[in-house]
Amino acid sequence: MEYIDLPALGNFAAYFGTGLLFLLIFKYIIIAITPYDEWKLIKEEKNIAAAVALGGSIIGFSIAISGVLQNAVNYYDFTIWAVVALATQVISIKIVRFIFMPKFVQRIEQNEVGAAVVAASMYIAVGLLNAGAMTY
Q1: How far apart are CA 123 and CA 136, in angstroms?
Q2: Residue 26: inside a domain, yes or no?
């Protein structure tokens, strides 16, 4: 008969729960630094571009957190590198918006899905780079 490894289950819960917490913190930071009201655009105006851009940033950060989870040597190491991943992802998103897409805000508000797909792709690519850099 198989048994459940309770310490491993506890570790899973701690890492997963903390990863989820970092994901929520990231989402709130991104919404706070976005110069338009994403929830209003998404929920009230049915703006697909805003949803795609927000979704891409969340997926990108999830990829970065996955890299942190795979390489952390302990819980403390995980939390420190998760903060680094969060800061890196937020700063990179600001850079992408400012340098690569200077008219990003107007294009999202006008529901230009093409601009959102490019932005989401960049955010996901940044997440992949972020995750790849988390190896040591």
Answers
A1: 23
A2: yes
Mean pLDDT in residue range 46-69: 95
**Is the predicted pLDDT of residue 3 greater than 80, yes or no?**
no
Are 104 and 110 spatial neighbours (Cβ–Cβ below 8 Å)?
A: no
**Would you say residue 73 lies in a domain?**
yes
Retrieve residue 72's tokens: 């952390």
Residue 6 parent element (H or E): helix 6-33
Look at residue 63 in the predicted model and tell me its pLDDT: 96
Backbone angles phi, psi at 47, to 5 degrees: -80, 105
Residue 114: which domain range? 21-133
Pick from 37, 95, 91: nearest CA to 64: 91
